[in-house]
Amino acid sequence: MIRLSNVLILLVVGGEDTAHGTRSRLVSSPTGKLKRFWRRNSFLFYFPIFLFILQIPVHKVSAQTMELPDVLDSIQHSYPSLKMYDAEVQSLDAEAAGARNWAPPQVSAGFWMTPYNTSLWNGMKANGNMPAQGGMGSFMVGVEQMFPNKKYNDANEDYMKAMSSVTKENKKATLNNLFAAAKKNYYEWVIIEKKLSILDESEKLLHFMITNAETRYKNGLGKISAYYKAKASLGNIQSMRVELENEISQKRIALNTLMNRDKLKDFSVDTNYVTKDYSSMVFDSTLFYNNRSDIKAIDKNIELAYLKQDIEKQSMKPQFGVQYSHMFRYGNAPMMFDLMGTVKIPMNWSTRTNKANIESLNFKTQSLEEQKAAMANEYSGMAYQIQQDITAKKKQVQLFENNIIPALQKNYESTQLGYQQNTEELFELYDAWETLNKTQLDYINQLQQLLSMQVELEKLLEIK
User: Fold this and answer.
1) pLDDT in tens, 135-156
2) What pairs with residue 269 in β-bridges?
3) Could you tell me if residue 307 is inside a domain?
4) Based on the domain organization, do 93 and 204 belong to the same domain?
């Protein structure tokens, strides 16, 4: 919290200076004594106001610091394509609600066994020796209903309920890719912040060299040969700072995009990081079968193929139904009805399509099984390669941390001490700094490679 005390003190001092500056004129006027009294004691009026203003805080807005888990959680809840998968799952589940379905009833109506001669419809009355005859023909109304095959409905329901499982696994695979992209951008931002810290320290050291060299040169105590190299290096550092700050802006935009929010929203990252140990892991096929969502999606497609086969098999079973008809007879003839059971009997010529589909699904499952095995084999090889790269890179990083950088730091400190005691030249101090600075940046680059390898391995293993 910043207060306005410094500004107000300047105002009071300015007021006092003005009062003293006009003192001679006030004394010479008729009312000079009164005005002089007011000038000298006006602070009694303004002082309470100043005290009130001093209590008004000015808050400095600081950027929000987001840790990596917070970024990943935000992506999981906000990224648009993930919501698309959720809507698709709901759509498939809603479709599965109608899996157990009956065939619609068939209703028929029309003339039945009716002669073309309409005079025969009303029949004939008794005439002499001719007995009376009823009317011929009738108007028929009929309805037919096929009963569903329970096993067919069971198979169809299982298939439709399982359709959304593939989409769910595809969503997890997409989320894994998004997490990997977020971690990559986040860790690169962390590395950039560490590079900026190195540049800050280097800039201070170069300012020391330049200022000290200028002083010594003016006093005739030193050469200026390395002075301009230090000035050029200071400019290079400033140029590098501009580039790194632009990269931070790019990383911020990328992460805001992944979190589906204002692309220019300001926030900072936590510069702490953890290098995990995966050196003892065994990357067999079972690990990837259990962890990888894209392989699980293939498993779900295999299950769907088997369920589809079951539907085709149940389609070749007989299907039963019932048919009822009612006849309205003409010419006062008695009404009649018809009640029959029906059955659809699958024959060889009517089940060719079903048999072909079953055979096709057999080959499809074989193809999916081979695809799954190929993916697991590829992932296993990639994981072992990254594991070896991580092991080697960790050894390099440890060498930088434990041997190289401490030795160069001591070399620079001893050279700086010698320069201060006039036993070393400026160019020697500059060379010591330049070597240390390049090595520190090289170490940061090695660290970035290590973190990138860790992200890639976690992507393969689908670890959040």
Assistant:
1) 788 899 999 998 888 888 889 8
2) 66
3) yes
4) yes
Residue 413 shares a structural domain with residue 290: yes
- pLDDT tens digits, residue range 158-210? 999 999 999 999 999 999 999 999 999 999 999 999 999 999 999 999 998 88
How is residue 350 annotated by DSSP? G
Structural domain range at position 191: 65-97+149-316+351-461
Residue whose structure tokens are 């050279």: 415
Give the angle subtended at the CA of 394 by the CAs of 388 and 400, to the nearest 5°: 145
Contact 372, 299 (CB under 8 A): yes
* Contacts of 382 by beta carbon, 8 Å cutoff, 6+ apart: 460
Please tell me whether residue 329 adopts helix, strand or coil conformation.
strand
- The number of beta carbons lying within 10 Å of the beta carbon of residue 178 is 18
The pLDDT of 307-317, averaged and rounded, is: 90
Q: Check pLDDT > 90 for residue 410.
A: yes
Q: Does 52 share its domain with 71?
A: no
Structural domains of the chain, count? 2
Q: Is residue 328 a part of any domain in this protein?
A: no
d(CA 253, CA 247): 10
Cα distance between residue 207 and residue 235, in whole Å: 11
For residue 166, count CB atoms less than 10 angstroms from its CB and return exposed for 0-12, middle for 13-18, buried for 19 or more. Answer: buried
Residue 441 inside a domain? The answer is yes
Q: Hey, what are 361's tokens?
A: 């699904």
Identify whether 144 is part of a domain.
Answer: no
Cα–Cα distance list, 395 to 194, 262, 387, 400, 410 (Å): 20, 41, 13, 9, 22
Of 113, 108, 110, 102, whose CA–CA distance to 143 is shortest? 108
250/244 Cα distance (integer angstroms)? 10
Report the distance separating Cα 159 and Cα 464, nearest Å: 31
Residue by residue, DSSP assigns 91-156 as HHHHHHTT-S-PPPPEEEEEEES--S-GGGSS-B--BTTBPPBPPP-EEEEEEEEEPPPHHHHHHH
Residues 43 and 192 in one domain: no
Report residue 108's pLDDT band, with 50, 70 and 90 as the boundaries: very high
Q: Do 167 and 49 sit in the same domain of this protein?
A: no
In this structure, the answer to whether residues 18 and 84 fall within a common structural domain is no
Looking up residue 199, the CATH number of its domain turns out to be: 1.20.1600.10
Beta bridge partners of 111: 139
Residues 276 and 147: their CA atoms lie apart, in Å, by: 62
Residues 9 and 82 occupy one common structural domain: no
Look at the chain and count its residues. 464
Residues 224 and 80 in one domain: yes
Rounded-to-5 percentages of helix, strand, coil across the chain? 70, 10, 20
